[in-house]
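Fill in residues.
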């Protein structure tokens, strides 16, 4: 199933780039803007592109570039007003012999005309729209790198909203999909995005009229982050999600570990690292075993084998294989360093005990036990449920705060809740005023009144404790029993039980179950949701593509919550 995934956004953008380069013969310069530079680097390294007769990379905004009239410029740019002005100036005093223009989204007739007028020296040889206006993170995950779209003030929406609508349109055009649309019923911003997207389609209807459409139209589900505020708050245990939560994945593919002279910038991308591509969704226990068996042990075996060789023919074979051996050694070193750092942080912050509490709170209903465990975690350590039988210190205020927020979300409408008592306890333990305000902030941002659907399933404490008797290896379910709310949404969608009162149709509707679904999370997706979608696609005949305005970890999510709360006062 995984091998034939037909909504592979990494392959889609790679094919666009390959076509740009192959369309232009001879030595070339790749001229990009800040965003398209990031879009290209997600799917190809510079060294890979330089092997395709590309002489150098540069940015259009760098106006002090040297003239090299023997080169042909491939300009891959977003069709923005700033880029139009830069192009007009560039064409008045060209630095290259030819210009081949590729825009990452729809360019208006007026936009093209302005550029044509500026091209008085007739340097522009071709113009195309290649719809690669998004960041392909995984094969079935994309981001738009848009900050804080969800805002209580509509005046804050336009710029981020326009970029979001452009990005969604680009994804659908690149995949040749014209979907029906549903959206989170309580979300004003999702409804507004639907309206703007529909206007965009109507203005450029011909672009969306694809031949050979399927009998059952694909579905675009515009999903509000506020429908599930729990998933971004939880401790993560799969490789990609852990790396983002505990270290932070920058620009969707880079992490930094160490400090000072030992500081390292490492690329963590499935497009550039085959081992990571196959391992990113493994849990902590599986990951360590796979690393040992497939990289460390294999390298040790190759090293021992090489040491036994003596003949010249053997030495020649060693040299022939040295490049691959060195590449594997560097890959092993990278992942050993990253996983070691994740293990160090996990131990220092006592995350196994904390995660156990988080999972209990979100997966079962036992108010008396939960409120006591949260108080214990703040007061003297994460005592955990009775089955755990251990007391360990919670060493970070951040984990205490997250437990308090999960409790508040779970029991906000319980008349006996102790949200205020927990807030007072946090204050006594030295939490800042800004941190304490997040308790009110999370309820205003994503409390029950703001959410579509029923986030917390009814389940007993005994069922959760039965699961708690397991851990990593055969016990992994302790820390990974939670499933993001999009699982519930997809289960209901594919059984035709998704309520229109919760996820409203925008425009035409159908009772047919779609084969292709694009879920776009306004307010940011998570790597836990990406992991679920990946697992779903491996076992289902349907296909799901996940996207979001950004990719959250708990820190970035709470920054958005804090900003929302500040603006809502």
């Amino acid at each position: 199933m995984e091998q034939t995934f037909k909504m592979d956004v990494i392959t889609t953008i790679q094919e666009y780039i390959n076509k740009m380069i192959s369309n232009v013969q001879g030595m070339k310069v790749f001229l990009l803007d800040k965003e398209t530079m990031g879009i290209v680097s997600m799917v190809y390294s510079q060294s890979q592109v330089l092997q395709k007769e590309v002489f150098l990379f540069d940015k259009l905004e760098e106006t002090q570039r040297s003239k090299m009239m023997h080169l042909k410029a491939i300009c891959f740019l977003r069709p923005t007003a700033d880029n139009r002005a830069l192009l007009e100036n560039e064409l008045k005093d060209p630095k290259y012999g030819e210009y081949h223009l590729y825009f990452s989204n729809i360019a208006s007739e007026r936009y093209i005309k302005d550029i044509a007028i500026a091209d008085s020296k007739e340097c522009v040889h071709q113009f195309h729209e290649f719809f690669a206006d998004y960041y392909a993170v995984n094969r079935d995950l994309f981001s738009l790198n848009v900050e804080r779209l969800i805002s209580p003030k509509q005046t804050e929406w336009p710029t981020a909203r326009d970029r979001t609508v452009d990005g969604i349109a680009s994804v659908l055009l690149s995949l040749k999909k014209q979907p029906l649309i549903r959206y989170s019923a309580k979300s004003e911003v999702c409804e507004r995005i639907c309206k703007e997207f529909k206007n965009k389609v109507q203005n450029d209807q011909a672009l969306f009229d694809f031949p050979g459409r399927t009998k059952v139209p694909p579905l675009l589900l515009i999903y509000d982050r506020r429908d599930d505020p729990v998933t971004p708050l939880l401790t993560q245990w799969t490789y990609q999600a852990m790396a983002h939560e505990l270290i932070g994945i920058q620009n969707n593919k880079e992490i930094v570990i160490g400090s000072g002279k030992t500081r390292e910038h490492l690329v963590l991308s499935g497009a550039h690292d085959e081992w990571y591509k196959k391992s990113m969704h493994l849990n902590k226990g599986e990951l360590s075993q796979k690393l040992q068996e497939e990289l460390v042990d294999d390298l040790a075996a190759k090293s021992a084998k090489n040491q036994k060789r003596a003949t010249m023919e053997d030495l020649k074979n060693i040299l022939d294989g040295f490049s691959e051996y060195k590449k594997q050694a560097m890959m092993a070193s990278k992942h050993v360093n990253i996983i070691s750092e994740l293990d160090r942080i996990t131990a220092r912050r006592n995350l196994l005990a904390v995660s156990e509490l988080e999972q209990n709170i979100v997966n079962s209903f036992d108010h008396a036990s939960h409120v006591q465990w949260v108080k214990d975690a703040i007061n003297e350590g994460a005592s955990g449920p009775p089955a755990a039988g251990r007391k360990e210190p919670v060493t970070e205020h951040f984990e205490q705060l997250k437990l308090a927020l999960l409790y508040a979300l779970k029991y906000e409408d319980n008349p006996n809740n102790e949200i205020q008592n927990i807030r007072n306890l946090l204050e006594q333990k030295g939490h800042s005023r800004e941190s304490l305000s997040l308790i009110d902030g999370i309820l205003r941002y994503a409390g029950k009144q703001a959410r579509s659907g029923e986030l917390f399933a009814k389940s007993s404490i005994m069922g959760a404790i039965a699961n708690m008797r397991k851990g990593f290896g055969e016990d992994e379910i302790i820390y990974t029993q939670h499933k993001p709310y999009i699982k519930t949404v997809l289960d209901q969608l594919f059984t035709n039980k998704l309520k229109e009162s919760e996820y409203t149709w925008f425009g035409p509707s159908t009772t047919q179950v779609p084969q292709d679904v694009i879920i776009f999370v306004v307010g940011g997706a998570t790597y836990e949701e990406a992991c679920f979608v990946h697992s779903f696609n491996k076992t289902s005949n349907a296909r799901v593509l996940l996207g979001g305005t950004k990719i959250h970890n708990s820190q970035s999510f709470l920054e958005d919550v804090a900003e929302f709360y500040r603006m809502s006062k």
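The radius of gyration is 26 Å.
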